[in-house]
Amino acid sequence: MSAAVVLFVTFIIFLLLGVPVAFGLIGSSIISLLMIDSGTLTPIFTKMFSGANSWLLLAIPFFILAGNIMEKGGVTKRLVNFADALVGFLPGGLSATNVTASMFFGGVSGSAVADTSATGTILIPAMVKQGYSSRYSAAITAASSPIGIIIPPSIPMILWGFTAGLSVADLFIAGIGAGILVGAALLIASTVISIKRGYKSSIPFSLKNVYEKGKEGILALVTPAIIIVGIITGFVTPTEAAVVAVLYSMILGFFVYKELKVRHLKEIIVSSGKMTATVMMIIIAAAAFSYLLTINDVPSSLANFVIEMNLSPFFLMIMFILLFLFLGMFLDANAAIIMTVPVIAPVIIASGIDPIHASVVLIATLGIGLLTPPVGLCTYVAAGIANLKFDDLMRDLVPFVLVLLFCVVLMLVFPQIITFIPSMLTS
Question: What is the C-alpha separation between 106 and 113, in angstroms, rounded?
Fold first, then answer.
């Protein structure tokens, strides 16, 4: 049995045994390397170190830290209030508010799971209090959370750019149109469902209310503006933009909203450290896994195989979408990216597909995996907040999953959705 086959088979066995993804990647890499050279494991540890030794990856802990500071500093609450002032007049007002707040918070945290936790803690109890079913409240919270990895900043986009050698700035800009599409589609779906179920608006529309809530909420929305404008103009790198986001969030929390206290910093730092450690463990493990893929010639062999199949770019993308839907059912989005991008990136380029367009489409596809069983991290978080089981949400979640799938198809068929804003900025 070849070392490449052993690599994949042992990894699958580790997953079936319930071994954490990071340790499964490392374990399968070690076993495969021992088949090639039983004398040393040094290359594994060298690749693990080099996989984490990147200036770009420093953006991840800083974006996580900025999101946690804003959540603790009262920013999330103000974003929710601003969202409610804007769309709360729609049928199912708090449902629409949930989606809009996810778009806002996604422009701050870069994490879908953080989005679920932050907005869900506020909105799920409020929705239940206003007469929404707990199942629907948790379902719309989970369903809107993948917007957090599409609208910039996005931790998965940072990982994708790092792994595929693409510009993170280009990915961020391309994600704006895709994020707006997903948000608009979920708004329409939630409004239609709310009309059918008789869910009422939360508040009447008032320009005065929008102004009052916007005065506070708009300060938080300066964060994504700082990030995007700074990166586009070349004034800051993504990592430096993340540091600026941390500093700005601390200014808001300590001096503007005055809800962030020094005693909160320990909890924020520990929480951010745990989230960062989880992501980085996957990154360093996947670096070892990717090294074994490379020395076993898997990426180039797959690229040659796909090229020989002579598939059109459209059908090739369909294959990748189906692959990512499957992977998303079992793997965290970050793990799926680190594992697969080194393999598929050469194929995408060799097939003449726009790598930025393909990247955003596939990242959006992975967002669906955050909802679907058996892993579905966002669904688990939302269910936990609502004191429900994962299975309790499935019926209410299905319509939103179908909407997200429809959005992925639209992005594939109409690439202008993704490329329009980047082309405007570069023209």
Answer: 10
